[in-house]
Amino acid sequence: MKAKEPFFWVNISCGIMIMAFIVLPLMEMLTAPSFSMIKETIRDKDVLRSIWLSIYTAGLAAIIAFVFGTPLAYVLARTQFAGKRLIESIVDLPIVIPHPVVGIAILSVAGKNHWIGQILSDLGIRIMGSVTGIVIVLTFVGLPFYINAVKNGFENISPRLENVSRSLGASMFSTFFRITFPLARRSMLIGIIMCSARAISEFGAVVVVAYHPMIAPVMIYERFEAYGLRYSQPVAVWLVTVCLVLFLVLRILTLRTGKSS
């Protein structure tokens, strides 16, 4: 594509507009609060607690997705069976379902009127207004991002490598953990990043299931409703900063893993 062609400049112009559309609101939000307000906000124990809870619950959701989503991603990547497209569509459903509907759906199953909810109640497990409920919601919305990323990673690994390992007498478990798992670890790290990013930003479903204890997005919303932009922006700045640092570290780890594999 030559720089002198009109097509080139149309593409460049569209790219600039998209970058401005994304960057300008974020820059305005990050620069609007004064340094003293940002400093005062981070000293607020409620703010620190909500940000930590967001990180903690998003991390737990990513771990759950890793443990239970990896086997499903492998099956979807390696096998062909009747109903596979249906299962893939079901996995993707949390991406398109409106966020409050996710919360209502979870409470419909976890409520005392449902047999699952009754079992949970008998076991002393509370979903509504609890950290457990938040983790369940975040896992629900983050799973598709992890499974799809890891599924693509498995698909890019040649099945011949596994076949050679099996032909040499290795079991399927041994083949997976010695051959497939190391080759797919970069995709797994990317999936964990995507799952965590989606989970830590969730608001609508969490409000329905657990308004308290407050994660950071809920606190930002509450402060905006009660006090307006002035008091909600500093919390948003800290959440964005923390998330940026966390995901930057994970990206660096991902790049190093990709170079070493």
Q: Give the H and E element order.
A: HHHHHHHHHHHH
| Oligomer class | single chain
Please estimate the helix content. Answer: over 70%
Shape: globular
CATH architecture of the domain at 53-216: Orthogonal Bundle
Number of E-state strands? 0
How confident overall, as mean pLDDT?
A: 89
Which CATH class of the domain at 53-216 is shown?
A: Mainly Alpha
Note poorly predicted spans: none
* Count of alpha and pi helical runs: 12
* Through-space gap between termini: 33 Å
Strand content: under 5%
How would a crystallographer describe the biggest sheet?
none
Structural class, from helix and strand content? mainly alpha
Supply the CATH superfamily name of the domain at 53-216: MetI-like
Give the radius of gyration.
22 Å
Q: What is CATH's topology name of the domain at 53-216?
A: MetI-like fold
